[in-house]
Every structure is written in C-alpha cells, then in structure tokens.
Sequence to fold (382 residues):
Amino acid sequence: MKILITGGAGFIGSYFTNLLYEEGHEVFIIDNLNPQIHGQFKYDSFLYKSILNKAEFIEEDILESKYLNTIVNKVDYVVHLAAETGTGQSMYDISNCVKTNSFGTAVLLESIIKNRSNIKKFILASSRAVYGEGKYYCIEHGNVYPDARKIEDMQKGQFECKCPFCDREVSSLATDEKSAISPKSIYGITKFNQEQLVKTLCESINLPYTIFRFQNVYGKGQSVNNPYTGILAIFSKLLLENKEINVFEDGLESRDFIHVNDIVNAIYYDLLINKKNKIYNVGTGQKTTVLEIVNLIFKNIQSNAGYQVTGSFRAGDIRHNFADIQAIQKDLNFKPAIKLEEGICSLIDWIIISNEAEIFKKYEKSLEEMKNFNLYFEHNVK
Ligand SMILES: NC(=O)c1ccc[n+]([C@@H]2O[C@H](COP(=O)([O-])OP(=O)(O)OC[C@H]3O[C@@H](n4cnc5c(N)ncnc54)[C@H](O)[C@@H]3O)[C@@H](O)[C@H]2O)c1
Ligand SMILES: [Zn+2]
Fold:
C-alpha cells in the first residue's frame, strides 16, 4: 500500500510510519516540523529521527504545500494527522488553530477533489474533545451532557459537573459515539469542523472514510502541549529531578489514557479490513484519576519530592472522560494491549535517557501564557 500521512513526523504519525514501514508499505509524509513539537533543532527531534529513511519526507506546511497536488495521485490512502494539538493554547492562539486544523483539512480535501485523486480511503484523526464534558448521569434527568464548568464554582473548589436542568452533581458515564457533540475548547471545535468537512465531502464523492476520536494518547516522544497526556511525562520528569508536583483541581479529575502503539494498531486494522464509513472512539474504556497517575509514577520512580493538590485550574479543561469503545471492538476486534503501568514504566525509561529538557520549558511557558490571558487560575494552598 502507498499511504500519505500528513503530520507524519509527529507523535502518532511517527509510530504509524514505523508500523507501516515494518509491514512493508510505502509511506509519504508532509510535515512542516512545527518547532512547538520538534523544538528549535528540528532535525534532532526524537520523533523526526525515528522516521528517517522510513518514508519519503516532504517538509512543507499543509496550507502551502506544492507537493500535495502530485502526491494525492500517487497514493492509495490518506491519513490526516497534521494539526495544532494544544488544547490550552487553542484558547488564545485561536486563528492559528483554526487555520491549521479547519483550513488545513479544507486544503487537503480540495486537492483530492480537484486532482481527481483515486484514493481508496480517507482517515481523519479527530479527538474526544468534540464531546466537551461528555456523557453523565443525573438521578432525576437520566443521561445528560453538562455545560462547561463555571469559574466561580471552581474557585470555591467545586469541580464536579452539574446537571444542566437541576444543577445537581452528576456522575460520569462512558461516552459513546452517539453522545452529544459539545466542544468546550477552540481545539475541540476545530476537530469537529474537520469531521464535518471530511464526512460531507467524502459522502458526496463516494470516498470511504473513517474518523477516529482518540482519547488521551501517551508514549515515548509524546507532546507535552496537551495538558492531560502531557502530565505523564511532566510529572515523571519533575519527580526524577526531585521537584514537587502541582496537582490541579482536587486531583480526582480523570482521563482515559491509551498507549500510542494501540492507537496505530487501530488505524492499521482499519486500513486493512474496514469497508464502512464510520466514526470510532479509540481509548481503553477505563478512567484513571490524576492522583492515581501520580501514585503509579511514584511506585515506579525513585524520588525525594512529593506532590501538592493545589486547586489550581485551567479554562477549557474538562472534568472526566472515558470512552465507550464497543463500536471499534465489534467492527475491528480492537483490544488495547498495553496496560497503563507498563506504558508509564517505558515512558519513564525514555525520559531518563532522552533528557528532554524542553519538557519543562514548554509546560511552564504554556501555563505562563494561559495566566497572561486569564485562562489559568492559580490557587495557593500554602
Ligand atoms: N496525542 C493525543 O493525545 C491526541 C488525542 C486526540 C486526537 N489527536 C489528534 O491526532 C493527530 C496527531 O496528534 P499527535 O499527538 O501526533 O500530534 P503532534 O503535534 O505530535 O503531531 C502533529 C504533526 O503535525 C505537524 N504539523 C502541524 N501543523 C502542520 C502544518 N500546518 N502542515 C504540516 N504539518 C503540520 C507537526 O509538525 C507534527 O509533526 C492530531 O490531529 C491530533 O489532533 C491526538
Ligand atoms: Zn438533573
């Protein structure tokens, strides 16, 4: 198979490139080596180096690519991963996020249609961010989809979501693909926008497509721009350097963490066997709180540092989310194989040897920027 991966030098893209290469496929990548992901010395980045000689690599911005019009007639499949992925950053760097994610997808689809490309399938990496807070249960109103949490409530330490009808606290349920779409960040809006562009265009020209809504993906080389996948790397790095961890909210916020190897296997099964136009959640279906993460890291690291639950919080963050993965289990026989503790251990091993100094700088810079724009609320409990 010949596959074009946009953003193929990124976190998920580089793992997918390696998988396809090992399976004997021909990979073409368009990626602008965004310095936020690849750092100042982009050709030295862990991710970029991992794809060297495994694909035909074109360093271009998807929005201005000259090569795109040629490549869409050379390949059998397009896997669209290129995106601005910082959820927090999307709340102030709005035009950049909309430009790359929404407009970038438009440019790619336009190239497919104008060049009368004969690709067999289009795959889009979307996100659980399209659901916003996701699905919850109210004892009076049944299944509900809460609004964004109020800053005033969170300042009082009330972090749980509330029923949009009676204001009672509600409990989180596994979010399935039919759950309400209700993004709470600009990033989430652009991911849904990408979905609509792909679904509408592909259906109108009879081009098969799959849209994946990934949960929080983690693994070696991961980006720390995403606050909740980032914490695995950031917390490990802090503890390794005997620095205290600042746990946001009350530490009971939760996520569904899935290892990048499981993600790329899901995309690969889809390319091999799926004939339907579908939207799938991809996660483990398990929710893990931030405090559980902290404990798992402590268990596997030698450190003199501790942690503090500070009650600080960021606008645009959601409270809980875990995926209902029945659809992908049924159609693709998908079973996540990597247990969280196993994945965390290999992530820690990587952080120790890779000496990723940039991890802190990026994290601290993102918090500083959010503070400047009144999107980060610091709560000192000392
Ligand atoms: N990692 C996650 O937890 C997660 C969760 C849900 C969805 N996703 C989605 O999966 C996809 C891949 O995510 P990732 O974690 O690998 O992100 P990443 O940031 O590591 O990779 C994105 C790649 O796209 C490239 N890129 C950015 N803008 C570009 C442009 N204008 N032109 C060309 N290349 C450009 C970057 O240089 C980078 O190599 C994204 O669409 C993201 O929204 C990721
Ligand atoms: Zn209610």
In short: The chain has a mean pLDDT of 92. The longest strand covers residues 121-127. The radius of gyration is 20 Å. Residues 2-135+173-312+320-369 form a domain with the Rossmann fold fold (CATH 3.40.50.720).
